[in-house]
Amino acid sequence: MWHSIFFIFAIILSNNTVAKQLFFVAEDLPPFSYATSGNPDSPLGALHDIFKLACQSAKISCKVQVFPWRRTYHMALSGEADGVVFMLPTAERGENFLFSSPIVTSGYSFFADKNNIFSYKNGRDLYKKLIVVYGPSGISNAVADLADKNNATVLIEVSNDIILKKFKAGRYPDGTILAMNSDVGNRLIDEIKIPELKNAGTFQSVKYSIAFSKKSKNLSVKDSLFKIVDEMNKNGETSKILSKYGLKQY
Fold first, then answer.
1. Fewer CB atoms inside 10 Å of the end CB: C or N, the chain?
2. Burial of residue 79 (number of CB atoms within 10 Å: 0-12, 13-18, 19+)
3. Residue 149 burial (CB count, 10 A)
4. What is the per-residue DSSP string for 54-97?
5. Whole-angstrom Cα distance, residue 218 to residue 106?
6. What letter does residue 221 receive in the DSSP assignment?
7. Using an 8 Å Cβ cutoff, are 25 and 75 in contact?
8. 2 burial via Cβ count (<10 Å: 0-12, 13-18, 19+)
9. CA 243, CA 241: separation in Å to the nearest integer?
10. 119 within 8 A of 125, measured Cβ to Cβ
């Protein structure tokens, strides 16, 4: 009898231990999250800082690694990772993920050469334009919808970094429009030093949340973690961290 009780207790203790170890992934998208010197084990960024503090407050050990978006998404989708440090909540993604309260607000913008008179006000401004965007991603889906409605062409690249480097090297036709997250675009333009590129208008507001995979084996700690996020949103901790990166709380 005592042997059976001890065995059951050992299983419970083991499960609780597992539930205290979370492995999350994030895409390389400064200033939200990024890796130093290409090291995926040294993540930085506003959303990583918020996630790290939430884990510490909830007394949960959390590890984060940075990967390209496609790999990040599928690792969490399959349950290989417990979740994603930040993700745009959508109804489609809600079938596979559980989201915290929104943390940060941002936007999707078009960028163009400063000598280009293009300025986005509505979808008609995109008529017969070539739009370059990284994907598959939330922003590429939004751009594809606009392009379909306004006879524009979309070119998908694997990263924003590649898009900006090709733009700087003159690899795209004159008049090409780039689509990027507003904050990411501004950050990368400064880092890669492309003064000839301008923000030509925001076409969609977005919000990002922490996403827990429904296939995670550690869903038992989701509520605790998300409760801490709610408290941080209310007590000013979230805003304080975001302000360091020039970002705004949702």
1. N
2. middle
3. 11
4. HHHHTT-EEEEEEE-HHHHHHHHHHTSSSEEEEE---TTGGGTE
5. 29
6. G
7. yes
8. exposed
9. 5
10. yes
Q: Which of 60, 183, 62, 189 is nearest to 113 (CA)?
A: 189
Q: Which residue type, as a one-letter code, is found at position 73?
A: Y
Enclosing H/E stretch for 188: helix 182-192
| Cα–Cα distance, 155 to 178 (Å, whole number) | 10
CA 83, 39, 75 angle in degrees (round to 5)?
25
Q: Is the separation of the CB atoms in 60 and 223 below 8 Å?
A: no
Whole-model pTM: value is: 0.85
Cα 215 versus chain centre, distance: 19
For the chain, the average pLDDT equals: 90
Give the pLDDT confidence of 41-59 residue by residue, as tens digits. 779 999 999 999 999 999 9
d(CA 180, CA 199): 10
Residue 51 φ/ψ region, left for φ over 0, alpha for ψ in the -120 to 50 degree band, beta for the rest: alpha
Q: What are the tens digits of pLDDT across the range 8-30? A: 334 344 444 445 689 999 998 99
